[in-house]
Design goal:
This protein has one domain: OB fold (Dihydrolipoamide Acetyltransferase, E2P) (Beta Barrel), CATH 2.40.50.100. The chain has 73 residues and is mainly beta. A hairpin with a 3-residue loop joins strand 1 and strand 2.
């Protein structure tokens, strides 16, 4: 697999919650650290996603927001 995205996180499929049109796919990238993505059901099928399978979370974004805890004034 060769892609232009720089943020590629290897993990295992932890869960797939199927809806009518889409599925919520949870990938565990480290113990206790999950990334969740909403993809179409045809994509779940074409990728052959199953619980326990190796998968990659690929993040391609032009904006990253930064936040800090709210401090009282």
């Amino acid at each position: 697999m060769k892609i232009s995205a720089r943020n590629v996180l290897k993990g295992k499929v932890k869960a797939i919650a199927k809806g009518t049109v889409n599925a919520e796919v949870t990938i565990e990238i480290a113990p206790g650290i999950d990334i969740v993505s909403i993809i179409t059901l045809p994509s779940v099928r074409s990728l052959g996603l199953k619980k326990g399978a190796e998968a990659y979370a690929i993040v391609k974004a032009s904006n990253v927001m930064v936040g800090v805890p709210h401090s009282p004034r």
